[in-house]
Amino acid sequence: MPSTKKYPILILLLMAFVSMARAQFYNGMNMPFGKNRVQWGDFHWSYYMNDNFDVYFYQGGNDLARYAQAYANDQIPRLELRLNSRFSKKIQFIVFNSMGDFKQSNINLEEEENGNTGGITKIIGSKVILYFDGDYTHFEAQIREGITRLLFSQVMNGVSVGSQIRNSYRYDIPQWFQDGLVAYIAGNWDCHKEARLQRGITSGNYKKINHLRDDDAQIAGYSFWNFIDEKYGSKTFNDILALAESTSNVRKALLYVTGKEYKALLKEWYEFYKVRYESLLVNQPADVMPLRYKKYRNFTQPRISPKGTHIAYVSNDEGKIRLWLEDLQTGKRQQLYTAGYHSDENIDTSFPLLAWHPNGEILSFIIEEKGKIQLYNLDIGSGKKASTYLFDFQKVSSF
């Protein structure tokens, strides 16, 4: 008789454990969608459990979850060693199959109170939010940055990222300091960021580094830590980080380790890159395309027609996407397509993708609309446009 009672008790305990796990995830992530978020599909979440972390995913995301699981398992020990710290509690990776799916969620609404403000990876408490844009190198960069950001928070405060941000004044941590250090340790750098750093330095926009925010703060901050590495040695940042933690003052930490006053060190950093990049300006073309440039506007996907008579390109104003066609002989420009809206959050620069038909009369472009991949073919002569839904395509990175 006693043995028969063990099974109901065991089942009840298992049911309670599963309910608690599901409830924890529901309360943290699966919130009701707010009035300013449009939902195009339902997500049914599952997860893989590990000793130090869990990976949550939904339908169609099993392969991404497995990839994230393997990569995080490899990177966590390496980054813990780099920051000389170990995770004190379990973390969670939340994997979205695409940027479009990610933008449907209310994550950014919670992030405004409890999450990080910079970088490519969203952090809420102990949750690392990931999305796949078709490029596994970008996916890996998000994972590395998420791990590093949580470890950095733990080193500086021993608490969550949200508390770190609220206490940043007490710790005197500028945004460029933390975002740049996280990106530097995570190794998140590419030619596009290098080009943006060059523009920021040569234009003078990065001279007042403490005034920089978001991507500019991260890029300038990364370059500062690279400068420290080249000038003062690769292990210097560990000493700076340790002193910043013990003294609660970044300026004192930089002074004690480098022997330079804060303002003098920032001036030295700026001149270091100014000399490097000004020597490259002589190789730039004399004639540039006259575009109406603004700080928040990006131009991408330039495509010259096979006949050489037109150029098509995309402008992105903080999420407001416009597709332009310009006559290279007359300079006349027309807007062919517009989508999105002005926003500082979750700007997807991977769409639209452009390509010309060999006859030079048809311009094709691919864009994501309401979570679906659409192919448009535009006759530039008549202006007629036809669209095709690319069924079973999760992401298109080129065509």
Helix content: 40-55%
Distance between the termini: 69 Å
Largest sheet: 5 strands, mixed
Q: What sort of overall outline do the alpha carbons produce when their principal axes are compared?
A: flat
- Cα gyration radius (Å): 24 Å
Describe this structure in words.
- The protein is α+β, with helices and mostly antiparallel strands.
- Helices cover 44% and strands 20% of the residues.
- It has helices at residues 2-28, 62-83, 99-104, 107-114, 136-156, 161-166, 168-171, 175-186, 191-203, 214-232, 236-247, 250-258, 262-278; strands at residues 46-49, 53-57, 91-96, 122-124, 127-131, 297-304, 310-317, 320-327, 333-339, 353-356, 362-369, 372-379, 385-389.
- The longest helix has 27 residues, at 2-28.
- It is flat.
- Residues 1-7, 9-38, 111-115 and 159-170 have low confidence and may be disordered.
